[in-house]
Description:
- By secondary structure, the chain is α/β, with parallel strands linked by helices.
- It has helices spanning 3-12, 17-27, 67-78, 89-95, 109-116, 119-128, 211-229; strands spanning 33-40, 51-56, 85-87, 130-154, 157-178, 183-204.
- Strand 4 (130-154) and strand 5 form a beta hairpin.
- The mean pLDDT is 84.
Amino acid sequence: MNSLGWARLCCRSGRSAWSMIACAILLGGCxxxxxxxxxxxxxxxxxxxxxxxxxxxxxxxxxxTEHDFIQCVGRSLGTSTSQLNVIPEADFVDxxxxxxxxxxxxMDVANLGSLVxxxxxxxxxxxLHIRYFVWIDGFTETTDSAGSVTCVVGPGGGGCLGFKTWxxxxxxxxxxxxxxxxxxxxxxxxxxxxxxxxxxxxIPIPLLARVKATACNAMADQxxxxxxxxx
Length: 231
């Protein structure tokens, strides 16, 4: 039985303090699971003076890649032992205004190749020493939930009782564009799943699966290996 199945069983088993505590102990070992797939088209390497830009796709208002996820990946790459030069997304978009705004950003390598023909854009790329664009598409969403937590406050005090759980899934795809060759060097896919739950016996105790953070770390580690370890 999976984590959510156990959670539903807990929610149906009663709301005594002992049952809530037992559920918390039972599910306390829950962890996120991550799958990473890599597809390489070309060998990759990066010189000390060259830079990387990590961008999120902004073409679907309902499914935009979260800004905090893009920042997390960029920050993880920039603070890695390889000390990659990572230009923050906001700084890059401002520096290249208006060519990388939502309505004008290139959505494929062919459009990027056309954009590079613009002398102003080409000059800015050269100034920033950009070698790779990492375009990330995807999002994190809650896929299932069960249970509830009820809290009351009265003259003699208050408290909460119940048990709530939910599943989160994070699916992201990164396309690595090599600006030197104006081509796709490869793609990386990450899929992360995890279950969070909140047992409450007087005080709610959130036990959260860090699904998005785990997906960020997995993506950053694979990107680092891809860019620096290509042969």
